[in-house]
Amino acid sequence: MKRQNVIYPKAQKALKTLGENLRLARKRRKITSKMMAERANMSLMTLRSLERGEAQVSMANYMAVIACLGFQDDIAQVAANDILGRDLQDAAL
After folding, report:
1. Where are the domains of the chain?
2. pLDDT of 38-78, one tens digit each?
3. Helices 59-69 & 9-28, crossing angle to 10 degrees?
4. CA distance 52 to 32
5. CB atoms within 10 A of CB 4
6. CA distance linking residue 57 with residue 5, whole number of Å
7. Would you state the CATH architecture of domain 9-92?
8. CB of 16 within 8 A of CB of 52?
9. How far apart are CA 89 and CA 61, in angstroms?
């Protein structure tokens, strides 16, 4: 039996926002869905699912679209400023 990941509501909302943001960025650049799907090497249905923020879409597909739009450097900033983690690390010293 395949194990299903649990996606909490806050994470679902973040994925939905990410998908919407990627769709808006694509549209601002006047890139059609078909063109983006081809550039990101995915099906049009996968792109549509991604732009809806569906959790079943692989991280690799999200990254392909992010790279096509030129946002790969922004991804490097995720968790870069981990205040809580640093505080916990300092407390353990």
Report:
1. 9-92
2. 999 999 999 999 999 999 999 999 999 999 999 999 998 88
3. 30
4. 16
5. 6
6. 12
7. Orthogonal Bundle (1.10)
8. yes
9. 33
CA distance 50 to 62: 7
> Per the structure block, which two tokens stand in for 48?
């549509």
For residue 50 the two structure tokens come to: 């991604």
Cα dihedral 14, 17, 23, 26 sign: negative
* Whole-number Å distance between alpha carbons of 7 and 13: 10
Give the integer Cα–Cα distance in Å for 49 and 61: 10
Q: Which residue has the tokens 């509501």?
A: 9
- In three-state secondary structure terms, 13 is helix
The whole-model pTM stands at: 0.85
> Measured between alpha carbons, how far is 40 from 72 in angstroms, rounded to an integer?
13
